[in-house]
């Protein structure tokens, strides 16, 4: 993978970036995504944010190599602190991190989200905690995708700010309000796997000398939700 040939995961993230966007890609990994979108005339301006100097320097080198320094800039900063008011960023992408870390980045950078019209997020794990943050902070999920690549399953969540309250059910927070209605083969395979894992965990807990009552109740509730979702798949 490089800036000219993205992975399926990153290409799917990029497909949700509106034409002409002013993009901030946080945790940019060589600036591949903003560089690709700039090369294809998809964005008018891009920031590649990195918190560690090594990846930041890699992003700088990639941008210079592709002669994109007029439109894409690498920034060494923690999370959304990479965004400056003059950037006029309207789209933020954060991909390839855990959901709790993405949530932390969004939480710490709420001031930088003031002018942002779209978040495109790809958590590796912890989708529930991310959807909960979006709901609590009045971001409505407008699109979701699930895909399998190189033995991993990835979910992409696209959200936009709204002025009204947002409310999702426990099932929607778990599996996705839109993914749960589409129920693709990748979706079904993921939740069959998750159901098996949860059932194994329950068996192990029940065999313990002192069963963890609260944990058992939580996992059994999750199992019930997953079973309900999978029962609907065949309908």
Question: Overview of this structure, please?
Answer:
It is a single chain. The chain is α/β, with parallel strands linked by helices. Helix content is 43%, strand content 23%. Strands 3-2-1-4-5-7-6 form a 7-stranded mixed sheet, with helices on both faces. Helix 8 (185-206) runs antiparallel to helix 9.
Mean pLDDT: 93
- Give me the count of strands: 7
Radius of gyration: 19 Å
The largest sheet is: 7 strands, mixed
Strand proportion, as a percent range, falls in 15-25%
List the helices and strands and how they pair.
Layout: H1 8-15, E1 21-26, H2 32-39, E2 43-50, H3 53-65, E3 72-76, E4 91-97, H4 99-108, E5 118-123, H5 127-136, E6 139-149, E7 152-161, H6 170-175, H7 179-182, H8 185-206, H9 213-233
Parallel strand pairs: 1-2, 1-4, 2-3, 4-5
Antiparallel strand pairs: 5-7, 6-7
Helix pairs in contact: 4-5, 8-9
Key words describing this protein structure:
235 residues; alpha/beta; seven-stranded mixed β-sheet; 43% helix
Short description:
The chain is an alpha/beta fold and 235 residues long.
């Amino acid at each position: 993978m490089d800036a000219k040939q993205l992975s399926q995961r990153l290409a799917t993230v990029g497909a949700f970036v509106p034409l002409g966007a002013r993009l901030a890609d946080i945790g940019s990994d060589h600036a591949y995504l903003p560089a690709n979108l700039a090369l294809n005339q998809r964005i008018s301006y891009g920031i590649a944010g990195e918190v560690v100097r090594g990846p930041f320097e890699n992003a700088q080198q990639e941008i210079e190599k592709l002669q994109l320094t007029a439109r894409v800039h690498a920034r060494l900063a923690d999370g959304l602190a990479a965004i400056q008011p003059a950037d006029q960023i309207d789209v933020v992408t954060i991909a390839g991190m855990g959901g709790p870390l993405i949530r932390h980045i969004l939480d710490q950078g709420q001031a930088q989200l003031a002018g942002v019209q779209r978040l495109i997020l790809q958590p590796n794990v912890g989708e529930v905690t991310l959807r909960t943050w979006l709901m609590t902070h009045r971001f409505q999920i407008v699109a979701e995708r699930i895909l399998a690549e190189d033995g991993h399953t990835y979910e992409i969540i696209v959200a936009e700010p709204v002025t009204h309250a947002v409310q999702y059910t426990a099932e929607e927070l778990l599996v996705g309000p839109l993914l749960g209605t589409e129920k693709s083969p990748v979706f079904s395979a993921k939740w069959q796997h998750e159901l098996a894992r949860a059932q194994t965990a329950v068996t192990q807990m029940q065999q313990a000398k002192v069963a963890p009552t609260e944990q058992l109740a939580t996992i059994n509730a999750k199992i019930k939700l997953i079973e309900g979702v999978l029962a609907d798949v065949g309908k």
